[in-house]
Design a protein that fits this description.
The chain has about 300 residues and is of the alpha/beta class. It has 10 helices and 11 strands. Helix 5 (about 100-110) crosses helix 10. InterPro entries: LysR_HTH_N, LysR_subst-bd, WH-like_DNA-bd_sf, WH_DNA-bd_sf.
Length: about 300
């Protein structure tokens, strides 16, 4: 029995849905289902009854659920109590946030010269886990997060970049509309790998009364940008400008292809237990917010 298996079991129980749990955790549904099945095999019982339309908790699952929640809470507490108490703040993100993160860290260090602020690289799941465990103080994420273990602070909103091959009929434009894009195939990784981008695109097209035309999903060992070279009629969306000379980056004129950026910290906003160093954490969140401009 592993902690992550209990985490996924509790998440599925919260929504009674593997798909919604997968979306909240930004993981594939198959990965969560596999780990819950392993937990059932380890315990020798069925915890969740699955059908094509619903998920129900068995008697064994109902008995395990409060215990699993206690174990996860104690795990978080164990990480917190053994963490070294120093004047050190750790900010987790990926490289796409590096420029803004380092600018914010520099600003805060000018005001808090006694505090060391580290910038550490982690993928999405690692960032959330590190905040919950107390390994890092703040993590930057794109999109929102529905997780009772953390507090989410909106920081700024980014425009996604529409990327096309330079041979694409729209490549000479600086901006495009969703109507312009609708006839052309959209290349994205499968939904289970990129829940956020699929959701943003579909919401934007729905608001415009349109439906995106999807091309074949991008294989796991390929990138959408490289696929555009072989599919000059297609397009994709990126968080940053494409660097390849064979590609062009465009902006969507209505501002519908946008993604929120948030900072997450451990615990609920209403939690009265204030972690060590929180004033510096608050200042760092404010500095990060300033780097992104207005939140709209």
């Amino acid at each position: 029995m592993e902690i992550r298996q209990l985490t996924y079991f509790v998440a599925v129980c919260g929504d009674l849905s593997f798909s919604r749990a997968a979306e909240r955790l930004y993981m594939s549904q198959s990965a969560i289902s596999h780990q819950v099945a392993r937990l059932e095999r380890d315990l020798g019982v069925t915890l969740l009854e699955r059908s094509t339309r619903s998920v129900t908790i068995t008697d064994a699952g109902r008995r395990l659920l409060p215990v699993a929640e206690q174990i996860l809470a104690l795990t978080d507490r164990a990480y917190a109590v053994v963490r070294e108490r120093t004047s050190r703040i750790r900010l987790a993100a990926n490289m796409s946030f590096a420029e803004r993160a380092l600018a914010a860290i520099s600003d805060v260090r000018d005001e808090h010269t006694e505090v060391e602020i580290e910038f550490v690289l982690k993928d999405f799941t690692q960032r959330v886990d590190a905040v919950v465990s107390g390994d890092v103080d703040i993590a930057l994420i794109r999109g929102d997060l529905d997780d009772h273990r953390v507090t989410v602070h909106p920081l700024w909103v980014e425009d996604l970049v529409v990327a096309v091959a330079k041979r694409h009929p729209l490549a000479r434009n600086d901006t495009v509309t969703l109507d312009d894009l609708a006839p052309y195939p959209l290349l994205l990784p499968p939904r289970r790998q990129q829940v956020l981008l699929h959701g943003i695109v579909e919401s934007a097209f729905a608001a415009a009364g349109l439906t995106p035309r999807y091309g074949d999903p991008v294989p796991s060992d390929h990138t959408a940008t490289l696929e555009l070279v072989n599919r000059p009629d297609a397009w994709t969306v990126l968080y940053d400008e494409p660097h390849a000379q064979a590609l062009a980056g465009l902006r969507e004129s209505s501002g519908r292809l946008r993604v929120p950026v948030c900072g997450i910290v451990r615990g609920r906003a209403s939690d009265r237990r204030r972690p060590s160093g929180e004033p510096v954490v608050d200042d760092l969140l404010q500095a990060l917010r300033r780097t992104g401009g207005e939140l709209t």
